[in-house]
C-alpha cells in the first residue's frame, strides 16, 4: 500500500507574500476600511435599514468618483485635449451604469419593509444630496433654487455657488467648438453661467454641421457622442429612481417633503444637452 502524504495547508508566505503588518500599512489601513464599515448607524431595529443605508452610501462614493472624472474631463476639454477627455467621459457613463445596478438591489425591499424604518429617516432625503446637485450643476442643469437645502452648511453652499460660477461641461464643449472655428453664437459664449441652459437653435445648427460631416469634425463628433452616452446612462438612472420609489412608496410624499414620484417624473423631462438629441430629428 502506498503511504499517503499528509495534507499541507497552502502558505502564501512561502511565495513571498507579506504576512506581518505591525507598524506597516495594510490593505485595510490604505482604504480606511474600519471607518467605512463603522459608518452605518442604524436608528431602528429594522432589518432593511442596513440595505437602505449602504445603498445610499455606496451611491455617494460612486458620485464622488463621477465628480472627480467630470472635473478632469472638463479641464481637458478647456485645454483642447479632447482625446484625454473621452476616457473620463466614458468612465462617468459606466459609473452611472453601476449606480443603475444599485436600484436593482434596493428594489428587493418591499413597501412593508420600508415602513418598518421610514420614520427613523426624519426629514432626510436623497433630494438633499449635495454631490448629486454638484453633478447636475457641473454638467449644465443649473437651478439656483436648489441651493436652499444646503444653506445650513456654509462650506457646501460655497462649493455649489463656486460651481455655478464656472463654465459647465457643456459650456466648455461649446467653447471648444468655437475655438475650432465653428460658429457658436456669441450670446451663448458670453451667457450668464449660473442660469439654466436653454436649447439654442444656433447651437443645434453647429452640432448639425458636425454630424453632417463627421470625417471633417471627427473629434467634435466623438465628443458629442460621449456626451450623449453619458446623458443616456444618466436618464436611465433617473428613470430607475422613479420606478424604485413608486414600487416602494407609491405616490406618498418623500421624507424630504417633495412630491415624491411626481417630482421625480418632472426631472425625467430635463435634457442636459438638448441640441444633441433634437438634431437627430432634423438630420
Structure notes:
With 283 residues, the protein is mainly alpha-helical. It has a single domain (46-282), classed as Up-down Bundle (Methane Monooxygenase Hydroxylase, Chain G, domain 1). Helices cover 59% and strands 0% of the residues. The mean pLDDT is 91.
Give the SSE map.
Elements: H1 27-31, H2 33-37, H3 49-78, H4 82-106, H5 111-115, H6 130-139, H7 154-164, H8 169-179, H9 186-189, H10 201-212, H11 218-249, H12 261-267, H13 274-282
Helix pairs in contact: 3-4, 3-6, 3-8, 4-11, 6-7, 10-13, 11-12
Features:
283 residues, single chain, Methane Monooxygenase Hydroxylase, Chain G, domain 1, 13 helices, mainly alpha
Percent helix range: 55-70%
Secondary-structure element pattern, one letter each? HHHHHHHHHHHHH
Task: Estimate nothing, just give the exact number of structural domains.
Answer: 1
Which shape, going by the Cα principal axes?
globular
SS-derived structural category: mainly alpha
- The CATH architecture classification is Up-down Bundle
Q: Return the CATH topology.
A: Methane Monooxygenase Hydroxylase, Chain G, domain 1
CATH class descriptor: Mainly Alpha
What's the short story on this structure?
This protein has a single domain (46-282), classed as Methane Monooxygenase Hydroxylase, Chain G, domain 1 (Up-down Bundle). The protein has 13 helices and no strands. It has helices at residues 27-31, 33-37, 49-78, 82-106, 111-115, 130-139, 154-164, 169-179, 186-189, 201-212, 218-249, 261-267, 274-282.
